[in-house]
Design brief:
The termini are far apart. The protein is mainly alpha-helical. The radius of gyration is 19 Å and the shape is elongated. It has helices spanning 6-30, 37-44, 48-55, 58-71, 83-89, 94-122, 127-153, 163-173, 176-184, 189-203. The chain folds into 2 domains: 1-56, Arc Repressor Mutant, subunit A, CATH 1.10.10; 58-203. Residues 13-73 form the HTH tetR-type domain. Residues 36-55 bind DNA. Keywords: DNA-binding, Transcription, Transcription regulation. It holds the Pfam family TetR_N.
Length: 208
């Protein structure tokens, strides 16, 4: 009879969920510097060794918690495969693309905004955390490159704008640093979504 390891896999998944939930709560309430692996392990009801074996270090825990927040769940499907991102790719014209991309940005910041603040407040004090920030920025650049390339192929970019410059504008518009500045000024999620849409219309996409 073949060995059935489904119970072990389910237990591992449950442990991961508990640890990530405990980590997210700790980061949001205590900040990055004050959060410890010991505290996360205690809150999750597991050993420190378990946390280290599964996640490596505190920065990796933050990255994994951030990825779950961005996606909205722990499903393995990347953000790019989620309905919000699919809507951007399946847009049939510039205006539909604007609306879909602005809604995507609002959804991502709505789910991961709290952890974005944690990252911003702790940068420069931990090499592992700085590496995480660099990874996130690179992931955003990859996403912006794909979107700009798609819009260029469809002939939707503003006259005189190439895909490379469009990518840079999109990457700047969706920067967590920009979102943080705007929310510090009291902007609502709707304000942010509208601003993203306005920026895309005025700087990236031609009129429908």
């Amino acid at each position: 009879m073949p060995y059935d390891n489904s119970s072990r896999a389910a237990a591992a998944a449950a442990t991961r969920t508990k640890v990530l939930a405990a980590a997210r709560d700790a980061f949001l309430t205590q900040g990055y510097a004050a959060t410890t692996i010991r505290g996360i392990a205690a809150a999750a009801g597991v050993s420190q060794e378990t946390v280290y074996k599964r996640f490596g270090n505190k920065a990796r825990l933050l990255k994994d918690a951030y990825d779950v927040a961005m996606a909205g769940d722990e499903d393995a499907a990347p953000v790019g495969a989620r309905p919000e991102a699919v809507a951007v790719r399946e847009a049939t014209g510039p205006e539909e693309a604007v609306a879909a991309y602005a809604a995507l940005c609002r959804g991502l910041t709505g789910r991961a905004g709290g952890l974005m603040r944690v990252v911003a407040s702790a940068r420069g004090g931990d090499p592992d955390l700085d590496a995480f920030v660099a990874t996130v920025d690179a992931e955003r650049l990859t996403g912006a490159t794909l979107v700009a390339g798609l819009w260029a192929e469809r002939g939707w970019l503003r006259p005189g704008l190439d895909a490379e410059r469009a990518r840079d504008v999109i990457w700047t518009l969706n920067s967590p640093d920009v979102w943080l500045l705007l929310t510090q000024r009291g902007w609502s999620p709707q304000d942010y979504e509208s601003w993203i849409a306005t920026g895309l219309r005025s700087m990236v996409l031609r009129s429908a």
